[in-house]
Design brief:
The chain is α+β, with helices and mostly antiparallel strands. The chain has one domain: Aminopeptidase (3-Layer(aba) Sandwich). Helices cover 32% and strands 28% of the residues. The longest helix is centred in the last third of the chain and has 15 residues.
């Protein structure tokens, strides 16, 4: 397995992976445009894991400044491993690569959110040392468009 930065040619496969996770409407053209934005963002990256010549997973991570304390914080924005490839260490490798990227960009900690119904994902994050802070803070979203 190889973990590498994503590129425009990966857009169709990333689109399919996002659909597997339940995010429809991510056609390859829109994913390609978003990859260009991520590629040009100075403290963000999208990484893919290739297994047997096929993109089997993707992770997007960004580093953001924190106002309430010194330093930066990493945020995993998206992580998907193909259903057919789960349980083979791909998610772990991608997460470790994202954590490495975050450390290189001055981050002292990393956060990730995961829908309440994703019990397997929650267990996965716990095995990697992530603590669930859902009882300590809420997540509020307002659509602006």
């Amino acid at each position: 397995m190889t973990v590498r930065p994503a590129n425009g040619a990966d857009a169709p496969r990333i689109s399919a992976l996002l659909a597997e996770l339940g995010y429809p409407g991510n056609n390859p053209d829109s994913v390609h445009k978003r990859l260009e934005i991520w590629t040009n963002h100075p403290r963000s990256t999208v990484l893919v894991a290739e297994r047997d010549g096929l993109v089997a997973g993707v992770i997007a991570v960004t580093a953001m400044p924190v106002l309430e304390r010194d330093g930066w914080q990493g945020r995993i924005v998206a992580l998907v491993t193909a259903q057919s490839a789960r349980g083979n260490g791909i998610g772990r490798e991608l997460t470790e690569a994202a954590e490495h990227f975050a450390r290189e960009n001055g981050c002292g900690r990393m956060e990730v959110t995961s829908s309440n119904h994703r019990d397997a994902a929650h267990a996965f994050y716990r095995t990697l040392g992530y603590d669930n802070w859902a009882d300590r803070s809420g997540r509020f979203i307002k659509n602006l468009i």
